[in-house]
Design brief:
With about 230 residues, this protein is α/β, with parallel strands linked by helices. It has a single domain, classed as P-loop containing nucleotide triphosphate hydrolases (Rossmann fold), CATH 3.40.50. The protein is about 50% helix and about 10% strand. Strands 2-3-1-4-5 form a 5-stranded parallel sheet, sandwiched between helices. The protein is globular. It starts with about 25 loop residues before the first strand and ends in a 10-residue tail after the last helix. The structure holds adenosine-5'-triphosphate. The site of adenosine-5'-triphosphate (ATP) has 18 residues, from α1, α7 and α10.
Length: about 230
């Protein structure tokens, strides 16, 4: 499910034990900007990747730890025949009902936080040179900046975002525009970035910029800023 406006499921305060021991990179960007593409590249280059969006999906997939709690709170009609969260039905409910959104977040957010921390601690012990936290609403949540050593923003023009998301998800142009309008503006995101990855052209260009970012993080000594 694409990130929606009020989801700020991650609270990095649990990660303070890692600060200064391993470089911590935050990776963000608007919907469809290319975060997953970049994090996959960084993962292939050897980084330890924790994707909070993926975690949110996993806990609501068949057998996911949030499923019994969601069923208890909202009823079986919100669970599909495969045992996953019925995302369409839930999206329709929470878009019009703030109380339901809150109830859903009270179930999912602690579980996402717990799993984010678990994966980060595990990866930090496995010899990875640095950790990447993929957080769609990193800028909006406002509580990651203190813990991260470096923030990278994947940026691309809104018309490109809209086209990519429509092609991949089947959402309408209006659906994507609604999500875009509720996310931080490009200018705000860029103003908080240490590195901006420009994903406005082909993948080769994005890969080259991602390589530069990787080298920067590899060269980073903990307890010092990577900003440049
Ligand atoms: P979301 O916010 O929805 O999770 P995202 O920021 O993780 O999206 P990606 O999934 O990496 O973005 O990219 C969105 C879509 O655009 C994908 O289908 C991806 O393959 C495609 N894409 C990303 N970058 C490029 C590019 N430079 N050229 C062509 N297609 C691209």
């Amino acid at each position: 499910m694409a990130s929606t406006p009020h989801q700020n499921p991650t609270d990095p305060s649990d990660l303070t034990a890692l600060k200064g021991h391993i470089p911590l990179l935050g990776l963000t960007g608007g919907i469809g900007s290319g975060k997953t593409t970049v994090s996959n590249l960084l993962g292939r280059l050897g980084a330890g990747v924790i994707d909070t969006d993926l975690i949110a999906h996993q806990i609501t997939a068949p057998g996911g730890i949030a499923i019994p709690l969601i069923q208890e709170q909202f009823g079986a009609k919100f669970i599909d025949s495969a045992g996953a969260l019925n995302r369409g039905k839930m999206r329709a409910l929470v878009f019009t009902n703030p109380e339901s959104r809150k109830a859903l977040e009270q179930i999912t957010h602690p579980l996402i936080r717990q799993e984010t921390t678990r994966q980060a601690l595990k990866l930090s012990k496995s010899g990875k040179p640095y950790l990447v936290f993929v957080v769609p609403l990193l800028i909006e949540s406002g509580n990651w900046q203190g813990i991260l050593d470096h923030i990278a923003v994947v940026d691309c023009p809104e018309d490109v975002q809209i086209a990519r998301v429509m092609e991949r998800s089947g959402l309408t142009k209006q659906d994507v525009e609604k999500i875009l309008a509720a996310q931080a503006s490009r200018a705000k995101r860029i103003s908080q970035a240490d590195t901006v990855l420009h994903n406005d052209r082909d993948l080769a260009k994005l890969e080259a910029e991602t390589q530069v970012l990787h080298q920067k993080l590899i060269g980073f000594k903990t307890n010092q800023s990577t900003s440049s």
